[in-house]
Each structure stands twice: as C-alpha cells, then as structure tokens.
Amino acid sequence: MDKRQRIIDATIQLCLENGIEKTTISHIVKHAGIAQGTFYLYFPTKLAVMPAIAEQMVTIIHEKLSQIDRSESITMKMQKCIDTIFANTSAYQELTKLVYSGLTQTEEVKQWEKIYQPLYDWIFEVIEEAKLTGGINSELDSGIVARIIMGSIESTAEQIYLFDYAPTIQVEHVKNNLHTFIMNGLGKNI
Amino acid sequence: MDKRQRIIDATIQLCLENGIEKTTISHIVKHAGIAQGTFYLYFPTKLAVMPAIAEQMVTIIHEKLSQIDRSESITMKMQKCIDTIFANTSAYQELTKLVYSGLTQTEEVKQWEKIYQPLYDWIFEVIEEAKLTGGINSELDSGIVARIIMGSIESTAEQIYLFDYAPTIQVEHVKNNLHTFIMNGLGKNI
Amino acid sequence: MDKRQRIIDATIQLCLENGIEKTTISHIVKHAGIAQGTFYLYFPTKLAVMPAIAEQMVTIIHEKLSQIDRSESITMKMQKCIDTIFANTSAYQELTKLVYSGLTQTEEVKQWEKIYQPLYDWIFEVIEEAKLTGGINSELDSGIVARIIMGSIESTAEQIYLFDYAPTIQVEHVKNNLHTFIMNGLGKNI
Amino acid sequence: MDKRQRIIDATIQLCLENGIEKTTISHIVKHAGIAQGTFYLYFPTKLAVMPAIAEQMVTIIHEKLSQIDRSESITMKMQKCIDTIFANTSAYQELTKLVYSGLTQTEEVKQWEKIYQPLYDWIFEVIEEAKLTGGINSELDSGIVARIIMGSIESTAEQIYLFDYAPTIQVEHVKNNLHTFIMNGLGKNI
DNA sequence: GATGAATGAGATTTCATTCAT
DNA sequence: CATGAATGAAATCTCATTCAT
C-alpha cells in the first residue's frame, strides 16, 4: 500500500539479487508495481534509497539490543551485543554489503554517523554505567570507545561472514577472542 | 607501456576525482591513452579492476609498515601502525571508499581476505614477538586478534575520515583512545 | 503516428536500399523519426522485425491474387499467379532476399508456414474448384500440390531475378515452360 | 592441417550452432586454431566463405546422384533424385538454411547459379536422354525444366524439414505427390 | 606465410528523466 | 498524486581490420 515502503522493499530485494550497479530504477518500479514516474515523488535517485535501508537495518539491531536486561553486567551485555551483531551480519550478509557500498558511493556517506547513532548510544550508555558502578576502571573516552567497539565487532563479523575468513566452526572461538579483547580494552578486571 | 597497469592507474585517478559511479570505461581508456577495445583485453568489466586496485593499496600500506624498525616495542609499533592506517585513509579517502564498495559489489569479495593477508601477517608477527619477549601477557589467539585490531583501526579511521565523525582537530585524541584500547585489549601492562 | 509501423516501414526501405547487414538499428530509428530507445519498446532485435515484414509482403501478393476473377479457368488463374509472383519477385528483389535470409536466421523460421498460409490457401481453392468443375483430372492431394506449385513458381522466379539465371529477354519463355509444366503436373488436358 | 579447410569447417560448425549473424571472424579463427590475421590470407570477408560451403554441399549431393545407374528409367531416376534431396535437406537442415541465407546476403548470390550447375546438368541429361529413348514426350525446354524441377524438389523439402510443414509421418505421401506432379509435368505417359 | 595485440569506428543497449494525460 | 510511453544522451561492447614481429 505505502508506496514509499514498497520502493524500499523492492530496492532491498533487487539489490540483494543483482547488486546495486545492476539494479535500476526501472527494475525497482516494475518490481514495486508502481509507475516509472512515481519513484521520483519519493526519492530523487536510486542511491537516495540507501539511507532508508540502512535505517531499517539499524532499527532491527537496535531493537534487539534494547531487549537486553539493563541490570545485567557489562560483560554480559557486551557478550550479547557481539552475538546480536554476528547474528545480524550472518542473516543479512548481503544486505550489510549493500548498505555499506550503497552508503559509501554517495555524499550520503555522511549520514552514516547519524543513522548509527542509536547503536553508538547504546554502547555509550553501557560503558558509562559500568564506569559508575565500578564495572570497569577506564580512563577512556566513552563516546570514542563506543565507536571503536562497534567498529571492531562489525569488521570482525564481516571478515567471517562476508570475506570468508575462518571456517564457520570456529566462530565461537573468534567471538570469545573478540569479547576478551574488548573487555581487556575497556580495562575491565584490573 | 604496460597497458594493464595504465588501466589500473587511470581507474584509480579518475575514481579519486569523480567517484566510482561517474567513472566510465570510456573515461578510463581516454585517460590511459589506449583504445576502447583494449580495455576488454585486460578486464571484462569496470568492477573487475577493483581487486587490482585493492592489491596496490594494501601494498602501499604494507611497505610503510615494513619500514618500521623491528627492534621497537610493540607499543611503538602499534602506534605507528595506527598512524600509517590513519594517514593512508586520510590521504586516500576516496580510494578507500572505492576499494570498499568496489570489492563488495562483486563476487571478488572473497579475494579480500587474500589481499589483506600481508597486513594481518605483519600484526601477527608483532604480537607473536611481543608474546615471546614478554612485551604482552596475552592468552589470545594472535591470528584472530590481528584481524580484530586491523578491523578496529580501519573502521575508526573510516568513521573519522569518511563518515565525518568528530572534528579533525580531535583526531589525536581518538588515536590515543584507540591505542590505549588496543594495548589494553592485548593485555599489555598486566 | 503508429511507432511500430514506422519501424517496419523504415526497416523495409533501408534494407531495400542497403541490404540487411548494413542496415542498423541506429539507421532505422533515424529514418523512422523516433528515439533510439523507442525501438526497443517494440522489438528486441533487428531480426525480430523480419516476420512483420514477411507478413506485409505476403499480404501484398495475396491482395493481388484476390483480385483475380473467380470465374476464370484454372489455366488462366495459374497464369496470372505466375505473373504476380514473378512481378513481385522482380519488383521486390531485395525485399524477397531480405525476408528469406531474415526468416532463416532466427527461430522465427517456423512462422513461415503460418505467414504463407493465405497463398497456399488461394492455390488450394483454385485446384479444388478445378477438380469439381472438371478443369483438371487430378488424383493429387490439393494441399500438398498447392505447396509444390507455389514453391516451384517462387524458386523459378528467384533463379531468374535473384540468381541471374537467363537473360531477362527470355523471361516469357521461362514462364511459358513453367506454366505448361504446372498444368501438366496437375493432369490438365488428359 | 589445410588452413583453408579448417576455416570452412569452423565456419560451418559455428554458423550451425549460433547462426550467421552471431558468428564472427574472431570466433572462427579461435575455433579453427589459427591467428586472427591468417583468416584474411584465405578469405576477404566472412560471407566469402559461404560459396565454399555451398560448393561442399552441392558436391555431396552430386556424388550421390552420380551413383545412380544410368540405365534406369527416368521415373526411377527422378524418384531417387527426390529421395536424395530430401535425405540431404533432412540431414543438413541447418546447413541448408545457412547456405541459403549466406548466399542471399551478398553479391555472391550470383554464384549460386554456377555452384548449382552440376545438379541442373544431371537433371538436364536425364530429361534429354528420356526424350531420345521415348521415355517422355515433352515439348518443354530441358534446361529450363531442369531448374524448375530442382526448385520444386528443394522448396518442398524445405517446407517439410525447415518450415515444419506436415508431420514427418506424411513425408512419403508428400514425396509421392511430388513425384507424380513432376512426371506429369514432364508429359510422361501421355 | 603466420601471428595476435592493438585499434577505434560504430553498433547495440541502457536507463534516468520528463510530461501530457 | 499517479501514470507510463517516449526520450536521447551516454554508456557498454563488438569486431573487422591492421601491422610490426
């Protein structure tokens, strides 16, 4: 019904199937079941749809993170955060690729920061809280470290699921290393 | 002389100037000073040039890392590694974007792992050596952590230079946080 | 007005002037006064226009045959049929060639039968009527003989006009032989 | 070994597989295992290979016709001629198509007459002999009728094998009609 | 004779964009 | 708001032909 949403859905599906380059507005409108001209009533270009897709994906992750019990330890929270990102990257491998290359291809790149904000905020809160409750003993800038952590989790997940590093069987081993590294990094247990 | 190299060079330069989308094969051949058809003798499509570019970029970084004195401490080496990646990402912002979206758009994705191998190996050696000389006291898997570290450095650099996070003035502050986080992560000073 | 018809007309005219090989889609659209992309809204390839042309040509011949008075003798009708096919092959030499090689080059070959049907039907009717009125005394299968006759007329006309057999001056002599042969073949005058 | 023959063979095979239009000199030389430039030492263009192919095909038919016993009756000879052409068209359906459209596409068309000469001559001799021995009582011009007959046999065979007329099961029925028609046409048995 | 990398004119094809309905 | 036929600039891609080796 909602034409805007139908455009987004069609774009996701087509890009997943054929890649961004080969997905054209003509294909999108055909797949969305709308007229050629209608596209332009909602988006100026094909790449302008990407932020909407990214937003949708970030929202999914954020919802999962929000369900984590606030009273849990930072160790546990970070564990679950890693699990969530890994699960998401695994499930939406191609979509992740899509969002990445979609965003990097345009001036929309700058929006990345804003779209990711909720995730950074979530980690930020976790760190700040841990600082207060003595969960960690860190001198680090929470805002910056939040980004570093999110980046390291994502890039590790990508290396595994997108770039084919390591047999899938070792995923747990990698996740454990990553978790230890991050907790160490935050100065936990010192 | 070498036509293949001239195609790669032209592709890099044009993509840096105008972005991937707007760089066409027609532009490339014109800039490379070769005939239209000659392009197809070396690459089947525009995107097929990307792995060659990625390789070249990794080579540049690797050469810089190789120049670091082997006798330096791991702390110093990691510092210089961060500096190198940041400098590179800053200098070749667009090329970085290019490599990223170029690689993710094709089946070549899987090559990424292989192309990056030299960089992972360099960090791996640094960690292993530090373990031996007592520079760090880590139980972590060096192969995995090498990838985590490289990922965290790159993603942080990208957030700064590509996604416009943080005013440039704070770059040193971010780098310090990143360095501390990594060294902590490795279990240094425990 | 009708873009499809304009494409067909332009294709015919250009192929008559320059041959099929040298007629390009670019030429066709220019001559038809439409945009390059418009061609592809109606036909996927140049050769896909051929069946439409064949149909048009058969229609022309069929109209001429239809004008022949039904009350004439089979001898007269066959004479006029020969004259019509010869005149047509002579006038549209290149178009005939075009239709032939156009149709044989694609999967459309099978359509030939269907397109030619009206001509076969016309001869079929003539033979059947002659059988009834005693014009001929033939045991032959009218459907099959209709095709044999049409084939012999066309191939003879082609030998003369396309393959340059016999000086033009002898055309009447050839036509007479052909007519006698066909009438004999049908068992006339026995 | 013989490069000329290898070009011809490659051209036949490739045209049978992909059609004339889509067969390029590049494909031919690759398939023939010779260098790009070598082609031009033997043929000026792709279509210039066609007469060589036609010649090859006509030679095959002519050899079969030559094996027919000279002492047989014209009725028998014509029967065997029909059988030979039908068998050939059936076996080399695609090659026939190829030769046809290949020849009609160029100025080489005029060579058709010359290439076919041996076949016309064979029928010519048969008719002339029959005239002498009283096998037929025809006033027709043997040279012209030879062409008419050959044309009618070929076009009928094509209708059956190329254009899909009539179920294969009726082939004998068609051949019988054709034979009767031709013998009648020649004035036999009057 | 034979080679095959290189050429580049020109063909096909695509597709974002418009605009009258 | 919505449509979709038409556009045409510009892209990709082909391929006959050449020529230095």
Automatic annotation (TrEMBL), chains A, B, C, D:
<dbReference type="InterPro" id="IPR041603">
    <property type="entry name" value="YvdT_C"/>
</dbReference>
<dbReference type="InterPro" id="IPR009057">
    <property type="entry name" value="Homeodomain-like_sf"/>
</dbReference>
<dbReference type="Pfam" id="PF00440">
    <property type="entry name" value="TetR_N"/>
</dbReference>
<keyword id="KW-0238">DNA-binding</keyword>
<feature type="domain" description="HTH tetR-type">
    <location>
        <begin position="1"/>
        <end position="61"/>
    </location>
</feature>
<dbReference type="InterPro" id="IPR023772">
    <property type="entry name" value="DNA-bd_HTH_TetR-type_CS"/>
</dbReference>
<dbReference type="InterPro" id="IPR001647">
    <property type="entry name" value="HTH_TetR"/>
</dbReference>
<feature type="DNA-binding region" description="H-T-H motif">
    <location>
        <begin position="24"/>
        <end position="43"/>
    </location>
</feature>
<dbReference type="InterPro" id="IPR050624">
    <property type="entry name" value="HTH-type_Tx_Regulator"/>
</dbReference>
<protein>
    <submittedName>
        <fullName>TetR family transcriptional regulator</fullName>
    </submittedName>
</protein>
<dbReference type="GO" id="GO:0003677">
    <property type="term" value="F:DNA binding"/>
</dbReference>
<dbReference type="Pfam" id="PF17934">
    <property type="entry name" value="TetR_C_26"/>
</dbReference>
<dbReference type="InterPro" id="IPR036271">
    <property type="entry name" value="Tet_transcr_reg_TetR-rel_C_sf"/>
</dbReference>
